[in-house]
Amino acid sequence: MSIDREGPVPPYKQIATILRRRIEDGEIPAGRRIPSLVELEAEFSVARDTLRKAVAVLKEEGLVETVAGMGVFVRDGQPGRGARR
């Protein structure tokens, strides 16, 4: 999937939106690891700092959490659906 580098929405926000949709649509289900930064870098062709910002947005929203040494995983409970915070 491509992002609009010339548009008004920063790339990291576009990527966060794409990943959020994948989570909400069940493409990346609860408990599953989201793609690594290397995988996301290959998909979106952006700097890792941009990807880190996108993942940080999802963490702030409570959609994902980091598991030390394993990666970033979709949380079991989603905000707005009785999630724990």
TrEMBL record:
Keyword terms: DNA-binding, Transcription, Transcription regulation
One GO molecular-function entry: DNA binding
Keyword Cell membrane applies: no
GO biological process, one term: negative regulation of DNA-templated transcription
Keyword Cell wall biogenesis/degradation among UniProt keywords: no
Domain (HTH gntR-type) ranges: 9-77
Record-linked SMART domains: HTH_GNTR
Region forming the signal peptide: none
PROSITE patterns tied to this protein: HTH_GNTR (PS50949)
Short name of one Pfam family: GntR
Entry-linked InterPro entries: Bact_HTH_transcr_reg (IPR050679), Tscrpt_reg_HTH_GntR (IPR000524), WH-like_DNA-bd_sf (IPR036388), WH_DNA-bd_sf (IPR036390)
Gene3D superfamilies the UniProt entry points to: Winged helix-like DNA-binding domain superfamily/Winged helix DNA-binding domain
Protein name: GntR family transcriptional regulator
Organism: Streptomyces boncukensis
